[in-house]
UniProtKB/TrEMBL annotation:
This is GTP pyrophosphokinase. The keyword Protease does not apply. One of its GO terms (biological process) is guanosine tetraphosphate biosynthetic process. Pathway: Purine metabolism; ppGpp biosynthesis; ppGpp from GTP: step 1/2. Residues 52-175 form the RelA/SpoT domain. The lineage of its organism: Bacteria, Bacillati, Bacillota, Erysipelotrichia, Erysipelotrichales. InterPro entries: GTP_Pyrophosphokinase, NT_sf, RelA_SpoT. Pfam families: RelA_SpoT. GO terms for molecular function: kinase activity. CDD domains: NT_Rel-Spo_like. It comes from the Bacteria.
C-alpha cells in the first residue's frame, strides 16, 4: 500500500527504476567478466555468488522522510545512493580487494564513496567493503551516470551479516547487551576463521600474479 500523499512520487519513480536496474546490469557484467577471467587464467573464481536488489519505493520514501528531504524524484540524485544495490560474496578476503581494485581501475567507473568496514569494522562486529560507484548507462537519447552501491564480503562475513540482520529486523524486542556481546564474539571468531582459511589457501595455491 502507498500513502496517498506520495502518489506522484510513486508514479514517477517507476520511470527512473529502469535506469537503476540498468546500472546494476552494467556492474554485474563487469564483475562477471573479471570472475570469468580469473577462472580461465587461474582456475579460481573470486566470486562465490552475487545478489542484487532495487530499493523499494516505500523504503526510498521512508529514507527521504528520515533525512527531511522533499519526497520527489528530483531529490534522489546526490542524496540517495543505494537505490541500486549489489552484494558480491567472495571466497577470500584477498578476493574482495582484488575485485574492488580491478573494478575501480576501469575508466568508465567513477568512485563516489568507499567505506571499508573490514579494516575498520563497525562497533557491533559488522565487516564488509562498501563502494558507491557511478556507471554510465546509455539510453536511446542520452547517457546517464547511475550510482550503484556495492557491498563486497566473504562467505563468512555474509553468514554473520545475514543472521545478524535477521535477528535485528525480524525481532520486535530491543537486542539485549548480552546478545549484542555474543554476536560481537561470533564476529570475532568468524574473522579469525576467515584469515586462517585465507592462509591455508595461500599455502596450498600460492598467490596469483595479476
Ligand atoms: P538493507 O535492507 O540491507 O538495504 P545509508 O544507507 O547511507 O543511509 P549508512 O549507514 O551510511 O546508511 O550506510 P552503510 O554504512 O554503507 O550501510 C548500508 C548497508 O550496509 C545497510 O543497508 C546494510 O545492508 C549493510 N549494513 C550496514 N551495517 C550493518 C550491520 O551492522 N549489520 C548488517 N547485517 N548489515 C549492515 P540498510 O539500508 O540498512 O538495509
Amino acid at each position: 500500500f502507498f500513502a496517498k500523499d506520495h502518489l506522484d512520487f510513486y508514479h514517477e519513480y517507476v520511470n527512473v527504476e529502469q535506469m537503476y536496474l540498468a546500472g546494476i546490469k552494467e556492474v554485474r557484467t563487469k564483475l562477471e567478466i573479471l570472475d570469468d577471467e580469473f577462472h580461465h587464467r587461474f582456475d579460481h573464481n573470486p566470486i562465490h555468488h552475487m545478489e542484487w536488489r532495487l530499493k523499494s519505493p516505500h523504503s526510498v520514501v521512508e529514507k527521504m522522510k528520515r533525512r527531511n528531504l522533499p519526497v520527489d524524484v528530483s531529490s534522489i540524485k546526490g542524496n540517495i545512493e543505494d537505490i541500486a544495490g549489489i552484494r558480491v560474496i567472495c571466497h577470500y578476503i584477498k578476493d574482495i580487494y582484488r575485485m574492488s581494485d580491478l573494478l575501480l581501475r576501469q575508466d568508465d567507473i567513477h568512485l563516489l564513496k568507499v567505506k571499508d568496514y573490514i579494516k575498520n569494522p563497525k562497533e557491533n562486529g559488522y565487516r564488509s567493503l562498501h563502494l558507491v560507484v557511478e556507471v554510465p548507462v546509455y539510453l536511446a537519447n542520452e547517457k546517464v551516470m547511475v550510482p550503484v552501491e556495492i557491498q563486497i564480503r566473504t562467505i563468512a562475513m555474509d553468514f554473520w551479516a545475514t543472521l545478524e540482520h535477521h535477528l535485528r529486523y525480524k525481532n520486535n524486542k530491543e537486542i539485549s547487551d548480552d546478545i549484542r556481546n555474543r554476536l560481537y564474539e561470533c564476529a570475532k571468531n568468524i574473522t579469525d576463521i576467515d584469515y586462517e582459511m585465507e592462509d591455508i589457501h595461500n599455502e596450498v595455491f600460492g598467490h596469483h600474479k595479476i
